[in-house]
Amino acid sequence: MSRKESFIQEITQGYTFKGAAIDLGAAMLDKEGLPGAMIKLPLRTMNRHGLIAGATGSGKTKTLQILAEQLSAHGVPSLLMDIKGDLSGIAMPGTGNPKIEERHQHIGIPFTPTGSSVDFLSLSEEKGARLRATISEFGPVLFSRILGLNDTQSGVVSVIFKYCDDHNLPLLDLQDFKQTLQYLANEGKAAMEQEYGLISSTSVGAIMRKVIELEQQGAGTFFGERSFEVEDLCRTDSNGKGIVSVIRLTDIQDRPKLFSTFMLQLLAEIYSSFPEAGDVEKPKLAIFIDEAHLVFSEASKALLDQIEAIVKLIRSKGVGLYFVTQNPADIPEAVLSQLGLKIQHSLRAFTAKDRKAIKLAAENYPESAYYDVAQLITELGIGEAFVTALNEKGIPTPLAHTLLRAPQSRMDVLTEYEIDSILSRSPLVRKYSEEIDRESAHDILSRKVQASREAEMQEELRKQREAAERATARETTTTSRRTRQEKSTFEEIMDSTVTRQVGRTIARELARGLLGVLGLGGRRR
């Protein structure tokens, strides 16, 4: 048996499955496509997660597009993170050209232009159904980890959540959390300490700074109502095709905190909401995280631990996660070890560091007698990749240099008119574009603070009024006392011996004068 025949036999045996599978492309040997050696991905193991890696321009996004549209054709819905803005074309049929026709001749399957049913979602001001979640839905542990708090500060957050639960204060958005934190650090401090213990002002300040940092990255638009129901990601259309939900994220590339916050909350919500599924014939949902390094680049160790735990456990819910990034080294090793499917596009070796990264990437793949992986990984053409997956028994398939099929949908973005047309028919836009502003912790505590301040003001006015009344009373008393003192002095003077003697002398002299006048008058007559 020739080397070529031996290779085709190995590929055929390794990629033949009993259940349904996706046709990904044809195996290549010595850079030649082999139509008889089809590379397939079994749907039974598509919930075992995966990696799509490769340098810029090597075809990662188109590979993502292929997987999403093929899953959709098999009735599996998916969620796509469209950070670069080039995935919207999956909604419309593609167009053939001579290069695509030639590629598919080498693969051995026809090219059939087909679009997928698509819904557009948004975290920010992009067009689409708005994705929101409340602070309460995050819970104290996840919220603390997103903020990157230490154990002491996380304890304060837990107390805040407990206080809000005990006093029926809905924590919906960041304003609610900030208002509660300020209230418990000031007006409600005494009651808080009596009921739950002392809260350090240093911890309060540190937490507030972290919240403001998150707020400055645009998280204020994400927290709130109406909360997104993750079950809406698991829909099929009238033809039984899985609906592709595309989250438009082109305006948050410079806000990794918001992106990682959203991703972690989404995964946590899916894990807590979806029932246990075990081993399934096909995934319930596939999630493709493009530019995955944004999730991990600024994540704290606690956050990475949380992501690792969710990646390990979410498989049992029938959900597959697919990370798309430039280099496998962008993904933490603990997460990378959980990925069953690996699709490696070309890597570039411009520096010694690049060569070391390529050697390390090559070691992540099964050994092959047919390829010098470390050498060939730098020579892969556009639309070519190394592929290894898990077969239906969970065993890695042989490593295959693969000529990938072309996407059946449009390999370009939609126009604004086309996007608006899709949105006008979307039930999710009508459901989630309504912003609900019900009474929450911010409103309740604001009223309580206002009432407390008014009560303090009234108390202050009462004290001032009483002080004025006391001052008036004191002045009246003083005046009365002075009057009495003056009257008493006069009486003492009038009653004194000297005064009486003076009075008698004056009276006598007056009498003498008067009698003298009268006497003179008598004598004249």
Key descriptive features of the protein:
alpha/beta; Rossmann fold; 3 domains; about 525 residues; about 50% helix; 12 strands; twelve-stranded mixed beta sheet; disordered C terminus
Secondary structure blueprint with pairings:
Blueprint: H1 3-14, E1 21-29, E2 32-42, E3 50-53, H2 60-73, E4 78-82, H3 98-107, E5 118-122, E6 129-130, H4 135-147, H5 151-166, H6 174-185, H7 189-196, H8 201-216, E7 244-248, H9 256-273, E8 285-289, H10 293-296, H11 301-314, E9 319-325, H12 333-336, E10 341-344, H13 352-362, H14 373-376, E11 384-388, E12 400-404, H15 416-424, H16 427-432, H17 441-495, H18 497-524
Parallel strand pairs: 3-9, 3-10, 4-7, 4-8, 5-6, 5-7, 8-9
Antiparallel strand pairs: 1-2, 1-12, 10-11, 11-12
Helix pairs in contact: 4-5, 4-9, 5-8, 6-8, 6-17, 9-11
